[in-house]
Write a structure and sequence with these properties.
With 504 residues, the protein is mainly beta. The protein has helices at residues 8-12, 245-248, 328-334, and strands at residues 56-67, 70-78, 88-94, 100-107, 119-127, 130-140, 151-160, 168-170, 189-196, 199-208, 212-220, 226-234, 253-260, 263-270, 273-282, 287-295, 303-310, 316-322, 336-337, 339-340, 344-348, 354-358, 370-374, 380-384, 388-394, 399-408, 411-419, 424-427, 430-433, 443-449, 452-457, 461-466, 475-483, 487-493. It has a domain at 1-30 and 51-175: Tachylectin-2, Chain A, CATH 2.115.10. The chain has a six-stranded antiparallel sheet with strand order 23-34-25-30-31-32, with no helix packed on it.
Length: 504
């Protein structure tokens, strides 16, 4: 059965909000508490080395931060149902960005407050030695259902009250209550702050109907009192007729603005993809001039709403939301939805091209390396005893093309082809050009984890996929080459990061 697209907005439209609740689709009514009747720890679709909530629905990564020797990752979580619910900030802790442990919920909606119907996406920074979260609080307005005004959105602030970041104190009123006066905004959410020599700056995702998405820029000395400056950057109308402002491109969600390698980069999510732009940031006029653009992940709907932070060693590390690509009734019945991508380290090349590769910490999970020589026109096929695998294909590129397939009971269920001669990468209906040479990392790296696949080509392009129904010992990996020379592959089985797929 063809999976229905499950977008960020689809989830928000199905929240259970008490007196102002939105009706769940008929196919999921009665299934909202299905997670209590399923065995999540033995669900082969559920990842084992990607971070994932203990149960039910999760989406955007929020506020990654390094504090007191530990990495903290927050995320959008509806703990009571895989069908949705008012978003909380889930919380996990790690010593290496790979092995995670669940902690209690960090932020939850406050009755009667500006976040009473959800603590939406945001960021975390340290100000004067105090970890501080800034996020979007929402109030549902059912009388505006189906319009851009359905959710009243305001920027909220909370400060940590302990070193473990277990308890947070909210500022009662929004620190930025509404979009700029006179702006007919399609949305106003997902704040991203940073520090400059003359104060704090903040971008908020927004846009205007038939004018395109934009990122609004604010300035503050204390993170509480903000002055609106102007749009940091503004898009253009796309001509898309979709009734949804995000799908139409008139709303840019989850902006992330940062400096790396002496250059600046803006990420935003819209039109079912995550776009990146690199260019020049004028610190005096506070304007961003785009020089080069691209897409973070070519998996389309499978990867969305990423969030980055600066690690202690200066690396810019990015996490994204791995979305469900199966029918809503299926993931509700399974009792869980969504995962977080592997941490990706981002750099910017000399020509302004965004580059990314999995963080080296992921290699801690490797078991013994198996080297396999593959000959042209003689495919190598092998049965997988576990669905936790990493494959490395060097692409210095002797072959004219390499194709990687997954087969279930002999039937092809997924295929990725890197066609060097044809300058293209193809996976099902998805295709994109190979990155321009020279590649910072001349290889194809592929990670399989239950139903999640992440592929990295040349250290510049990435693609996330979902494949459901795979079973250990019933799934085969096949690699085939065309060209004149043999290629030696490396294959590792990877360790799980918990004994029960992070269900506890």
């Amino acid at each position: 059965m063809k999976a229905r697209k499950i977008a960020r907005r689809d989830f928000l439209a199905a929240l259970g909000l008490g007196a102002s609740s939105v009706a769940l689709p008929k196919q999921v009514q009665g299934l909202a508490l299905a997670s209590g009747t399923v065995d999540l720890a033995h669900d082969a679709d559920r990842p084992e080395y990607h971070f994932i909530a203990s149960r039910n629905w999760m989406n955007d990564p929020n506020g990654p931060i390094f504090w007191k020797g530990k990495y903290h990752l927050f995320y959008q979580w509806a703990p009571d149902s895989a069908a949705g619910g008012p978003p909380n900030w889930g919380h996990a802790i790690s010593s290496d960005m790979v092995h995670w442990r669940h902690l209690p919920i960090a932020l939850t909606p406050t009755p009667g407050a500006a976040d009473r119907d959800g603590c939406w996406t945001g960021s975390a920074v340290v100000r004067d030695g105090v970890p501080t979260a800034i996020y979007t609080g929402v109030i549902h307005q059912p009388e505006e259902r189906g319009t851009d005004r359905e959710w009243r959105q305001a920027q909220m602030l909370a400060t940590a009250e302990d070193e473990g970041l277990l308890h947070w104190k909210k500022v009662a009123e929004p620190v930025v209550a509404a979009p700029p006066t006179g702006m007919m905004a399609t949305g106003f959410r997902d704040p991203c702050p940073w520090r400059e020599s003359d104060g704090w700056y903040l971008v908020v995702g927004s846009g205007e109907r038939d004018k395109g998405g934009c990122v609004l820029l604010y300035r503050s000395q204390d993170l509480r009192n903000w002055e609106y400056l102007h749009p940091l950057v503004h898009g253009q109308a796309t001509g898309n007729a979709s009734p949804d402002s995000v799908d139409r491109g008139d709303m840019w969600e989850c902006p992330d603005f940062f400096e790396v390698n002496g250059q600046h980069c803006l990420l935003y999510s819209s039109e079912n993809k995550v776009s990146w732009s690199t260019g020049e940031y004028d610190r005096k006029e506070h304007r961003f001039t785009i020089k080069r653009q691209g897409v973070i992940d070519h998996g389309g709907n499978a990867y969305y709403a990423p969030k980055s932070f600066s690690a202690p060693d200066g690396r810019r590390v990015l996490w994204g939301w791995v979305r469900e690509m199966r029918a809503q009734a299926e993931f509700v019945a399974a009792g869980w939805a969504g995962a977080i991508s592997l941490p990706r380290v981002m750099t910017i090349g000399k020509q302004g091209q965004l580059e990314m590769n999995p963080a080296v910490e992921v290699e801690k999970l490797r078991g013994a390396e198996e080297r396999i020589t593959v000959k042209p026109d003689a495919p190598h096929r092998r049965r997988l005893s576990t669905l936790r695998q990493e494959l490395h294909v060097p692409t210095t590129f002797a072959p004219a093309a390499v194709t990687v397939r997954l087969l279930a009971q002999g039937r092809r269920v997924w295929e990725l082809a890197v066609d060097v001669a044809g300058n293209a990468v193809r996976c099902g209906e998805i295709s994109f050009q190979l990155p321009a040479l020279p590649w910072p990392r001349p290889s194809l790296r592929l990670f399989l984890d239950g139903s999640v696949i992440e592929a990295f080509v040349g250290g510049r392009e990435a693609m996330t996929s979902r494949v459901y129904g795979l079973k250990p010992d019933q799934t085969e990996l096949e690699v085939s080459l065309t060209g004149a020379k043999n290629v030696e592959l490396s294959l590792w089985a990877l360790d799980a990061i918990s004994s029960d797929r992070l269900t506890t």
